[in-house]
Write a structure and sequence with these properties.
The structure holds 2 protein chains of 2 kinds.
Chain A: H1 3-17, H2 68-75, H3 93-111, H4 118-121, E1 125-128, H5 134-139, H6 149-158, E2 165-170, H7 175-195, E3 204-207, H8 213-221, E4 225-231, E5 242-248, E6 259-265, H9 272-289, H10 294-301
Parallel strand pairs in A: 1-3, 2-3, 2-4
Antiparallel strand pairs in A: 4-5, 5-6
Helix pairs in contact in A: 7-9
Chain B: E1 2-12, E2 16-28, E3 38-48, E4 52-53, H1 64-78, E5 87-92, H2 98-108, E6 118-121, H3 123-133, H4 136-143, E7 146-152, E8 157-163, E9 166-173, E10 180-182, E11 188-191, H5 209-226, H6 234-239, E12 256-260, H7 265-268, H8 280-288, E13 297-299, H9 306-314, E14 317-318, E15 324-326, E16 332-339, H10 342-346, H11 350-360, E17 367-370, H12 378-392, E18 397-401, H13 406-416, E19 423-427, E20 436-439, E21 448-452
Parallel strand pairs in B: 1-5, 5-6, 7-12, 12-13, 16-17, 17-18, 18-19
Antiparallel strand pairs in B: 1-2, 2-3, 2-4, 7-8, 8-9, 10-11, 14-21, 15-19, 16-20, 20-21
The chains are: A alpha/beta, B alpha/beta.
Chain lengths: 302, 459
Amino acid sequence: MNKQELSAMVADILKSMGKEPAVKGSEYYPSDPGPQMVDTHYQDGDFVEDVSALDLRKLYLVDEPADAEAFRKLKARTPARLGSGRAGPRYKTLTMLRFRADHAAAQDAVFSQVPEDYAQKNGLISLQTRCRSKDEYLTRPDLGRIFDEENQKLLRSAISKPPKVLLVVGDGLSSAAIMANATQCMAAIRDGLKARGIETGQGVFVRYCRVGAGDAIGDITGCELVCMLVGERPGLVTDKSMSCYITYQPRIGVSESSRTVVSNIHAQGTPAVEAGAHVAELIEKILKHKVSGVGLHLEAQL
Amino acid sequence: MSERLRSVGLDVGTTSTQLIVSELTVENRASGFAVPEMEITGRQILYKSPVHFTPLLDENLVDGQGIRRIVEKEYEKAGIGRDRVDTGAIIITGETSRKENARVVLDALSSFAGEFVVATAGPDLESVLAASGAGAVDYSQKTGKTVLHMDIGGGTSNLALIEDGRIMGTGCLNVGGRLVKVDESGRITYVSPVLSGLTDLKVGDTPGAAQLEALAQLLVGALEMAANLREETPLLAKLTTDEAAGASPRPKEKAVISFSGGVADCILQEHPPFQFGDIGPVLGKSIRESRLCAGEYMLGQETIRATVIGAGCHSAQLSGSTVFYKAVDFPIKNLPVAAFSQLEQDGEDLDRLIRQRLETIDGERAVLAFPGYDAPDYGKVTALAEKIVRGVDRRPVYVCVETDMAKALGHCLILRLPPDTPCLCLDRIRLTEGSYLDVGAPVGPALPVVVKTLVLSNS
């Protein structure tokens, strides 16, 4: 390769580095509802159409095990990647592919978007924080907690009278979690509150949302309590785990310890519907004691 | 955060009556950031009574007043008041007249009622409690082994087959140490009617050792058949108790045999043959020499006390920690169970089925048991609630589902029920048709429940 060729090649590489990636983050949408877990009778060498559809808790890949039954019982109790066997000193191909698939799903959950029509379909007011893109959302947590003038005005005009309880759905770090759980959970919260004589008005959807955005919403609407369903930072076990943060008297500047949180809301954790019913009861308790977070724990122990 | 439950177990057996007082510790095992998950984390025995002979009016009828005196005295010795008991169980067993005896004991102990003790009996539950109290269930869970537990008492042997810590089946045989009683001289004073046709021994005989051993071997043979260690003959069916007919659990693979009950103490230890005035020691010796002890076998951590410890420490279980109740007074006792299959639960005519079942069940009350749905859509929950509301037709609503969805279902129910309708919605409890349910006052967010297989009173 002569000098000319080399510099041409370098120029080529430099040029391509400036290019947009083939698929932009803002164009990702979570696969809904995602692959259904299937019981697997997988054996080495079988063709697998979708590695992420295999139920890991039932996938035992050790060759010539001393007691496969006992190990399967252990595996049924944990999502950890145990008993994956090995090929020489390495993972088996299936294990490696599954790990990469789960990692990819976790990344997708972060970078993907909740569909544009989600708010409208669910009767929610649609807001966006000061972040203008996923990248900005990830690199500027501070902007994910505040709203620009336009969004503030939108919220103010939609909610004129300060509500007692304001339900908020935020994409947070996992759009997949919101798509899988939020609608079901919210329905259960609304009915649970209704059964306890607490009415809820129109809810809010926030794109590029941090938990602190609820404080700004509290400031704008003057509501007594914000209950926010927000996607959790995904891991390799599930990309669909959602949390619920409840803040009494949400105002910008409240401390994190004043929030009550219910985490691990997903199909293998606390099912969305039952979590919603539990949250409704928590909200009733918080309204009664007029305190959330650590203060509620202290109050409850008195 | 932990709470304590005071639990009393009372075992009124053919031969002995015992009482224990224990304390169950209930704790939230979930982190503070998740939905609570209450579990029984500790079972501490505070007091064990001595083993009393069961006071009898005649061969088969229990002396209720005698039982009351024992309980009164033991409460005093244990230093607990009647109002300090949260849960527990009375187990009443005997060769015959179980229900009659149960009624006598219940009536005699009615002044101890209050929150006291859920009354229970029946061979299935007794087998479960003996296996739990002897530690066989724990052993199976820890080792993953299949265990066949035999609680061999005075009148009956209660069998429980345990796989991986789960009870897969129970059975009851008329095999016990006091089917034949003898006086000091070795003269027979009693032969149980269940032995008719199986032995020539009769009251007044003074049998030789060989005759008694032959009878003991016959009885042990039935136990071997139940353990799949001997080819079955009609003897097994003949010695199977009426209540347990056809329900004898057979281990599929090789099982560890575990023993408890009074006779278990005679298996490893040699006793003079008539020390207890019965054939217990002879039976114990036969067991030691039988196929039951040819493979892996063990004595329970508790032997003669296994059932009472089971009754005191293992009869109560906890519901899931997200449940719903409104306008319900605890404790609720003796709710009959109407169980529905997955197919019925999803069927279009579930409301009609519910109405039918409620009409055939005595009285107005029954708990409707459903398999439920894993991580359901809310629509499925509301659909089930609507069918239940139509089905119960203004009766109080008691519902139990196996999967974690009771609180949501409860909310859906009361939004659709007439105001002030009593409504109880439990989950993570499996109920089968024909059993009965007791529900105690809440422990934290969960409810203690006792599932009974045979009910004694509808009071």
